[in-house]
From TrEMBL:
GO terms for molecular function: oxidoreductase activity. Pfam families: adh_short. The keyword Hydrolase does not apply. Keywords: Oxidoreductase. InterPro entries: NAD(P)-bd_dom_sf, SDR_fam. Belongs to the short-chain dehydrogenases/reductases (SDR) family. Gene3D superfamilies: NAD(P)-binding Rossmann-like Domain. CDD domains: retinol-DH_like_SDR_c_like. This is Retinol dehydrogenase 14.
Length: 308
């Protein structure tokens, strides 16, 4: 009898977990023929699944990644899965401001259009530093994408209506920004949370600045996804994390759905500057909706990446 109860409890737990992992899918079938999409970190995880989904809609897709070998393999897989041969890779290291500037110069020379920019690449909670002396999380997750977006903004305006979709995380709620120490790098988890909050403020200020210029911006929490973020940690941690992810996290294909939704949906366009979860707008904590903080972070970021 004990064995039977154990089996029943296990089955019930399994189906509860499956239910918890259910998420909404993007049902908008809009085509993107003639459009160009740039996706950072598009060689794996959510980025690659987003690339596949948008390539299937006919877009020209450029994936930006620092690992040329892995990106080359990803490009072949994206082409094969999407049946779209208009997919390519360009080298980009978001932990290096010079690399970002060089990338943007090459991109603007090669590509005549930029209709959708997906700021997907991110560093997990690691204690490390970028080549320019920023904490890795803040430097890559926020400052790198801040410089990239601002440098490519003229092309986005030329191709208006255009969109910028930036991936964030619901963990933003556990921290607030400290303008006396934006480069905080003491407790890895808190550093990550601050970088994800910065992504939200960045999206709001970008949306405000883009009003009337045809550039809209969206922040997306894709859910907790079975991606390759654990590669930065020890073998034992990776094994434990894989078990947890299998039980509670969603596949990358499902995690990409809200990104795709914000990239193509007319309904999403009504919520410029919004925060999205499960293909619909979600409510942010009050402190994450402070336009004054968003403006202050934008001005501080301009100084840090030497845009002013």
């Amino acid at each position: 009898m004990y064995v039977l109860y154990t089996i029943l409890a296990s089955l019930v737990s399994f189906f509860i977990l499956k239910w918890l992992k259910k998420r909404r899918y993007c049902t908008d079938l809009k085509r993107l023929d003639g459009k160009t999409v740039l996706i950072t970190g598009g060689s794996s995880g959510i980025g690659k699944e987003t690339a596949i989904a948008l390539a299937m809609r006919g877009a020209r897709v450029v994936i930006a990644s620092r690992d040329a070998d892995r990106a080359g393999k990803a490009v072949r897989e994206i082409k094969f899965t999407s049946r779209n041969l208009d997919v390519c890779h360009m080298e980009l290291d978001l932990a290096n401001l010079r690399s970002i500037r060089d990338f943007c110069k090459s991109f603007l020379q090669r590509e005549k259009r930029l209709d959708i920019l997906v700021n997907n690449a991110a560093m997990p909670s690691v204690l490390d530093w970028t080549d320019d002396g920023f904490s890795m999380c803040f430097g890559v997750n926020h400052l790198g994408h801040f410089l990239l977006t601002n440098t490519l903004l003229p092309r986005l305006k030329e191709c208006a209506p255009s969109r910028v979709v930036t991936l964030t995380c619901s963990n933003y709620k556990y921290q607030k920004l400290d303008f006396q120490d934006l480069n905080y790098n003491l407790l890895p988890f808190f550093t990550y949370c601050r970088s994800k909050l910065a992504n939200i403020y960045f999206t709001q200020e970008l949306a405000r600045m883009g009003e009337g210029k045809g550039v809209s911006a969206y922040a997306v929490h894709p859910g907790f996804v079975q991606s390759g973020w654990t590669c930065h940690f020890s073998f034992i941690f990776r094994m434990l994390a894989q078990v947890v992810m299998w039980m509670f996290f969603v596949p990358c294909e499902m995690g990409a759905q809200t990104v795709v939704y914000c990239a193509v949906s007319d309904a999403a366009a009504k919520h410029n500057g919004g925060y999205f979860v499960d293909c619909r707008p979600a409510t942010l904590r009050p402190f994450a909706r402070d336009s004054g903080v968003a403006r202050k972070l934008w001005e501080a970021s301009e100084r840090l990446v030497q845009l002013v």
